[in-house]
Write a sequence for this structure.
């Protein structure tokens, strides 16, 4: 694979020549963004006037509408950059799975497994016999099963 092929694979869909239709972008991304921002701006101005009149609840909405507008801009940017909702969702899912795998690998590396591998039963018996807490728990469970067997309906 040549360098130019790798660069074209990594470039966002809106930058690719002949990629997405700019008309489709206008109708599905840009116009809805403008409508959402117009709504958020109008609502913010209304809430500023209401807060100025002494309506205390308007202060909450005064901060809420700009946050909704910022969220709309963030979503617009993600969809424009990723190319579609499905691609954006998939890339986000892939990033989270990679992050979880990395965290699990770091945890596994820093916390060695105290239980021996299942391939050596003698070693498992030795470690089980040495664990007093496990023996006490097993005795408790056996006593519980003897006095109140599973499936015994009272």
């Amino acid at each position: 694979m040549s360098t130019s092929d790798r660069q074209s694979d990594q470039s966002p869909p809106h930058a690719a020549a002949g990629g997405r239709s700019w008309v489709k972008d206008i109708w599905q991304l840009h116009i809805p963004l403008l409508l959402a921002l117009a709504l958020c701006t109008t609502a913010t101005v209304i809430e500023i006037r209401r807060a100025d009149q002494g309506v205390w609840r308007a202060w909450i909405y005064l901060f809420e509408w700009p946050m909704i507008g910022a969220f709309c801009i963030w979503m617009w940017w993600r969809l424009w950059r990723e190319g579609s909702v499905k691609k954006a969702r998939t890339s986000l899912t892939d990033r989270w799975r990679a992050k979880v795998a990395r965290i699990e690998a770091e945890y596994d590396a820093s916390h060695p497994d105290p239980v021996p591998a299942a391939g050596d039963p003698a070693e498992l018996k030795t470690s089980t016999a040495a664990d007093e807490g496990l023996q006490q728990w097993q005795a408790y469970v056996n006593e519980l099963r003897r006095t109140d067997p599973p499936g015994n309906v009272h």
Notes: Residues 10-110 form one domain. The chain has two domains: 10-110, 119-149. The mean pLDDT is 77. Helices lie at 3-10, 22-52, 58-82, 85-110, 121-130, 132-147.
